[in-house]
Amino acid sequence: MAKQYWLMKTEPTVFSIDDLMEVKSEPWEGIRNYQVRNMLRDDLKKGDLALCYHSNSKPSGVAGVMEVVKEGYPDYFAWDKKSKYFDIKSDPENPRWFMVDVKFKEKFSRIVSLTELKEENKLSEMKVVQRGCRLSIMKIKKVEFDHIIKLSKKSVK
DNA sequence: GCCAACGTTGGC
DNA sequence: GCCAACGTTGGC
Would the pTM count as exceeding 0.85? Predict the structure, then answer.
């Protein structure tokens, strides 16, 4: 199957591209949204590439690239009473939440900010630039992915 | 820290 | 199954 491309949001105060660089790979835990859950469970495939997007940040924007190294499996943090992601309604027999593992690929030499993304006509269809989008993982097109990589290499004006 | 937008919950 | 209340997200 052809490689797919994603954009995954994270709050850098919780987990950033730098943290990922240090640990090399990491379970992408704590997703508690059904639409995103379905993508994690069914759509993200090993070898897919994902942009790491820093939200609630200064500035918010794309910080680097990650690769999916383990496909959807149950989010066991939901069964851990001590975890902030504990969910009493998730039953180990019939898990409600899923996650994938991602691996560090690349940290951009600069953040490609949301403002910048919005200025690009080619990226106007991407959900992340549309207002009120609260999906923390979204599928993007190869051309969009490539375009953002290109932007990241461009020096800032 | 504010607040708009959106998702989820729960009473009916 | 509707919808108001509430919680969360995330840009600013």
Answer: yes
Q: Is the CB of A132 under 7 A from strand B?
A: yes
Give, in Å, how far the C1' of C1 lies from the CA of A37: 25
Q: What is the DSSP string of A24-81?
A: SEEE------HHHHHIIIII--TT-EEEEEE-SSTT-EEEEEEEEEEEEEE-GGGG-T
Helix (H) and strand (E) counts in chain A: 4, 6
Strand B and A134 CB separated by under 7 Å: yes
Using one digit for the tens of pLDDT, what is the confidence trace for A1-42? Answer: 789 999 999 999 999 999 999 999 999 999 999 999 999 999
The answer to whether strand B lies under 7 Å from the CB of residue A131 is yes
d(CA A154, C1' B8) / Å: 42
Tokens 């950033």 sit on residue: A16
Whether A47 and A58 have beta carbons less than 8 Å apart is answered as: no
